[in-house]
Amino acid sequence: MGICQEVDLPGRLPEITTALGAAYTLGGCLADAIPLLTQAMEQSTPTTMARYQGLCQLSMSQAQLLAGHLEESQTLAERALTLARARLEQSRQAYALHLLGDIAALQDPMKAERAEGYFRQALTLADELGMRPLQAHCHMGLGTLYAKTVMREAAPAELATAIELYRAMDMRFWLPQAEAALAQVS
User: Fold this and answer.
1) pTM summary value
2) Tens of pLDDT, residues 7-31
3) How far apart are alpha carbons 38 and 7 in whole angstroms?
4) pLDDT tens for each residue of 98-119
5) pLDDT tier at 42 (50, 70, 90 boundaries)?
6) Backbone φ and ψ of 36, nearest 5°
């Protein structure tokens, strides 16, 4: 990011800022992530915005979700989904649908079918596109959703599938979370 600023490459700055903001989000540094992602959205020109708008919206939506701002997160995820559909970007559609599933799962347990629908749509796309990490996340989302609903008996199978995928891909960060969730429903 410093190099882009130093040599005056404003066209690349939104890309770099978005990537750094997404990394901070995944690392749990939301106080650093949100200002960077806001900066990326503000610095984007019409040309660069077309390339990075959806990614930036998804990253900001994730950060807002983790910060507990569900309405803002949902608005951004819906915008990202609309944009991805308009541009036929199936992988971004899948990520946006998964994110909408996460958001819906936190909003109203009585509306679990909405969250399930998002997770299922994301899983279908992830399967078609071979997006194995997202497949695992979708199974994890379904398992944790089912654990909180009348479909509790379906939770262990979804969580076991997530665990199997996480292990196969050596995704150690999410594995303990999935194992803990399975232990709670078994």
Assistant:
1) 0.91
2) 776 667 778 888 899 999 989 999 9
3) 22
4) 999 999 999 876 778 999 999 9
5) confident
6) -65, -45
